[in-house]
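Action item from last week, closing it out:
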Amino acid sequence: MKRIEELPEEYQGVVRGMTALMGLAMAYRERYGDESLEVIKSFGEKMGTKMGNELKQKGGIKGSGLEDMRKMMDLFTEAFGTKAKYETEANKLRIIREVPSLCPMIFVSKAINVPLRTVCENLAFPQLRALMKTVNPNVKHTSIELSEQRCVDGLEI
């Protein structure tokens, strides 16, 4: 895995920003308990909504179907230079990311020595859910598989 300093400059900023946010959240958790993580979840949701609205406009996304969500995900991950694989079945879309994916949350997890699941459940997933709700407010997200080697997210409408 690359070091943060070896990443493209704009990607470094994303990783450093997320690391600072999650590090602060973990410090508050240590001091005030698990309830303080609700603050970072709320921030992730707001950030996801803001990015989703901007990306919808940039990408010309007008619909609310699985193909529109796929386009949103492509726009979202474009900044990281990675592409997800997709599987579609009826009203379900699976988003599959495999190593060597440059997932910012893996870098965040390693930088502050916090389990990847903790980082994703409190920052990445709220952000992803809000991002996708800008395309379809009825979308449901589930984490099917989560590891440094492979992440699979499920979206259902």
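Closing note: The CA atoms of residues 69 and 132 lie 6 Å apart.
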